[in-house]
Amino acid sequence: MKISVILCTFNRCQSLSMALDGLAAQAVPESIAWEVIVVDNNSTDQTRQVAERYCRSYPDRFRYLFEPQQGKSNALNRGVREAGGDVLAFIDDDVTVESTWLRNLTAPFERSGWAGVGGRIAPPLDFSPPVWLPVEGPYDLSGVLALFDKGREGAELTEAPFGTNMAFRREIFDRHGLFRPDLGPCPGSEIRGEDTEFGRRVLKSGERLWYEPSAIVHHTVPENRLRKEYFLRFMYDHGRASIRERGRRPSVRSILGILLTSFRSRLIQWLSTIDRQERFHRKCLVWTSFGQIVETTTRLVDRKRNYA
Question: How many domains does the chain have?
């Protein structure tokens, strides 16, 4: 087995250095060949200098690529095309990894049957959520912070893993395609979901995914992400992404369905809830409906223009 670790980055040279430190210290058996591909998505800071420093220190391990076409999915797809491994692992530029991360994440591929693996994404050790933020239970919003914790026991996944800690066999991309550029963040748009859409696409095809809790990364939680405004904007964009993912032409009926069913019921639930954490969770769902309505309406307008 040969492993390619793909890390896409944009203007985060400081956190990138910490992420690459962790990758350089990975404890992987000598019998396993592996590489790290850093895809610079048109950064204007010191990203190139940081990456090339690791390429010089570990010339047989690190590679630097420059992807000028802006958009995370474009960078991811460049990394997939350039990778030499038969297993492709993905990680972000704002995480720290434990020394056993890569070995634990890819070990399940030594057993047959698994198309992909998702690892556990934990917050920093000193993380303390605000009182209004539910991070477990029925109103869990930890996914907005890119946290992914399904327990301490390995199990088959029924949902898509997150892109900052996942791996797939190379052949899965050959069979199911690459990441969708219209769902990844890019200039002028923070709409996300390229990673989870790919995972759902793989699951819907009948492929099987594994959750590996021992493959741990710690994801940073900047202060600006612990504000209600950040969560509401994220959920608004999540609503837009959910409409894009469907890929079907919208109709007036679909708009009315969202307006009269989802939006109305979510609005009533939000306004009638007293519990602080549940109330904020339901408010986030209202903002999701806003995003769905806006995206569907935009598609309808574009459709009418095309027919005009």
Answer: 2
Instruction: Name the burial class of residue 79, with classes exposed (0-12), middle (13-18) and buried (19+) by CB atoms within 10 angstroms of its CB.
Output: buried
Residue with tokens 């010339």: 59
For tokens 């297993």, name the residue.
Answer: 87
The answer on 209 and 106 residing in a single domain is yes
> What is the C-alpha separation between 277 and 271, in angstroms, rounded?
13
- Give the Cα separation of 164 and 306 in Å (integer): 38
Q: Is 178 helix (H, G, I), strand (E, B) or coil?
A: coil
What domain range includes position 190? 2-225
Is the model's pLDDT at 252 over the cut of 70? no
Q: How is residue 238 written in tokens? A: 């999540």
Task: Tell me which of 169, 196, 225 is where a domain ends.
Answer: 225
Q: Work out whether strand 209-219 and strand 95-97 pair parallel, antiparallel, or are unpaired.
A: antiparallel
* CA dist., res. 44 & res. 26, Å (int): 28
List the structure tokens of 84: 């030499």
CATH number (domain holding residue 120):
3.90.550.10
Q: How far is the C-alpha of 238 from the C-alpha of 81, rounded, in Å? A: 27
Mean pLDDT of the residues in the chain: 92
Question: What would the pLDDT profile of 15-55 be if each residue is shown by its tens digit?
Answer: 999 999 999 999 999 999 999 999 999 999 999 999 999 99
Amino acid identity at 277: Q
Closest by alpha carbon to 106, among 95, 92, 117?
Answer: 117
Rounded to whole angstroms, the Cα distance separating 157 from 115 reads: 11
Sign, CA torsion 236/237/242/243: positive
